[in-house]
User: What shape does this take?
Amino acid sequence: MARQLSRRKFVVYSLAASTLTVAAPLGCDAATAEGAEPTAAATRTPSDVLVTGTDGEMLVLEVTKANKVVVRLPRVEVGQGVTTAVAMMIAEELDARLVDVAIPLADARTKGNQFTGGSSSVSSLYGPARELAALARAKLVTAAARRWNLPARSLRTRNTKVIAPDGRSATFGSLTASAARIRRPAVSSKPKPASRHRVIGKPTTRIDARDIVTGKAKYAGDLAVAGAKPTVVVRPPTLGGKLVSVDSRVARAMPGVHAVVKVAGGVAVVAESFHHAFRARDALRITWAPGPLVSLSDAAIRSRLRAAVPRLGDPPRGSTQTEGEFEFAFVSHAPMEVLTAVADVRANRAEIWFSSQTPMDARASIASAVGLPESKVKVHVMRGGGSFGRRLNHDAAIEAALISKAARRPVKLMWSRADDIRHGRMRPASHHRIRASHARGRVVAFTHATASVSESYEGQGLSAQGSAQGPAQGRVTPAVARAAGPLPSDSGLYNFGRVSGDSGSVELAIPLGAWRSVDSGTMRTAEEIVVDEVARSLGKDPVAFRRTTLRDKAVKAVLDKVADAGDWGRTLPAGQAQGVAVHEEYGSCVACLVEIDAADPKNPRVTKVVMAADVGTAVNPRGLEAQLMGTAIDGISTVLQAGLHIDRGAVRESSYADFHYARQRHAPLSFEAHIMPSRREPGGAGELGVPAAAGAVANAYARATGTKPRRFPLNF
Amino acid sequence: MPSYSFVLNGKPVTVEAPADMPLLWVLRDMLNVTGPKYGCGVGVCRACTSHLDGGEIQPCVVRVADCANREVTTIEGLADGDTLHPVQQAWLDRDVAQCGFCQPGQIMAAAALLKKTPHPTDADIDDIENVCRCGTYSRIREAIKKAAANG
Ligand code: FES
Ligand code: FES
Assistant: This one.
């Protein structure tokens, strides 16, 4: 497989300050970090970085006098464990105790890479974070050497302290002021070789685990700031429906109601509590005009998608065909924490608190929506209760800002669960036509044509939607941009002769968004099903067939690992079967083996999941295991039971009661993740497992039931 | 406005609220007790799960009037000071949480289950309805078994 992760170089700076503070620039994305511009950053005066309280485009590390190491992270924590991974990198190079490292989330910045997505966080931070901490360590050691008048080389660091051969020790906090004055460290400031890692690669508990289990972890809705009042919005019954008239007299007269204001998406109620807000919302008498999709339901969308799939060319002469057409329904992101934003918009400034994967874009969009210069808009990034791509868009933050402006008061806007599921966003529905051509027992050509729904609006109706492709389009949003990139089947995962693909689309006024693993979640899943069907038609075992046709050693190794650990081929009772699938992306690869009990095909249970992943250096193997576990549940949910129906222009589902994301009774009784040892730099991992898990579930279902799964979710 | 008194996490509280106000919003919006989370408001996601007189409830569908003169425990009141409840400790040991949003409810559901059924079977655990959108179910299962073994 193509390893595109080159060894990157970073220039690390020391900032003049009264405590030791070092900074490393972050490029626009991992790929451009190579050419980081030292001149621009070097001329930045230290006060820009520190006194104003923003970090510019830098990753800044500060050692406080209280012996804390603080790095304000230009990423968002939504459960993927990035704060823990970065804390581990810092602790590793500094020889600090993990509990002494704090990773608050940075406010929206004006420059640099503050994008969380595309499974890029760990790989983009691995270099800068370690370089930064290694320089800080060198300065602390040098400061201690001067204090004690000992050769710097004779000193060790451990547990957030510098230790002398005679046993004397000094905390980093006690050295920070003098370390800040060191210009040239007397020991190496290079990161450790991987062979000396003691923290990186060691399974580590999340740094926020205790806050979570005690209920202390704060999400946007838990904030009591700026006197913000609970706010909800009544939305149209159909997607994109328009307000014709509203009678709010009863609602306004209800106790605890502070304001009722019209917004682009409906009518907002600001009240004393969410109870009062919901009651008043339900008392609004509204006439709606139906949205633009009112004549459209699933069946029509499916046939338009089918018609939009480009024709497959002629197969190689003399070959035999294995073909399949696959359909995937819309899927809600449905993060556990509904979209929530606190906004305080005044005449000359605005302040917003919410969880965002794209805070720089968000600030630009909010500023233009409320008519303020960007410099007057402050965006505080909060931890998020899940995202799966949903927080790439900032719909709720823009809406909250507009409501705050109209109501002239700070608001805490919360989308209800029904708002979240019925008004977007969604993974687009798609249709796939795949053909594998084989001759003399080998695949000689493989082609995959697809069509998916794409979001498009006539006119300005939904300007407050906060699309990641919105006003600040020039900024980097790879996860979204990738949708237009090459087809995943072009990656040449298999030795399948001539590989080709093409895509079409159906444009609809429907709110869509990148969903964990984006196009691969459907495309690669469908391809892995076809790989199994090819194996069957060639009379070969699915694992053996993959082993002989996969190109890359690393992918074969993860496949072998799951086959071995999962006891591939073991005998199971009728109605039960194993299934397997592989995937590579983000410089990483993964295999998944599942066992399913589909004796009742309407009520199948995945009983066991075994995954193996090679992601290069796994900074926190326990965090990686958690990500794989999550993608296994995504695979089970999207293949077997969780999707959205469109009925006459509206989403039929409205909560987890009918959007059937897996619960405990659908989760495997046994889950194992195997992490392949590697000293390569980290690849991406957060989204990696989805296609392999989904493919393995579908293949197991096919083998257990003797059917060919074609339309997902299967029980819908 | 009627007023209701109940014991919240060991301390008496009195609130003036409409009788039909769900406990969830009394806790979150009036008392600033934000551990119980909103995930649906209709009793299906279980993110708000807390205890009423030691049994599991979903505060989003329990009226404050029905809590009068009773004992309400939220995630904030589960530990004994700095000593975590065995379920919280098992959650920490097994590093269950991802985004964490469902976990106060998951922990309260597990604690209520173990109180009734000290040694739950897989089928008992399967009956837990709480949604975890991050998919932490395997670790939840292990943590419950661990807490059962330690309790
Ligand atoms: S908020 Fe979903 S059950 Fe209470
Ligand atoms: S940990 Fe995120 S929803 Fe359960």
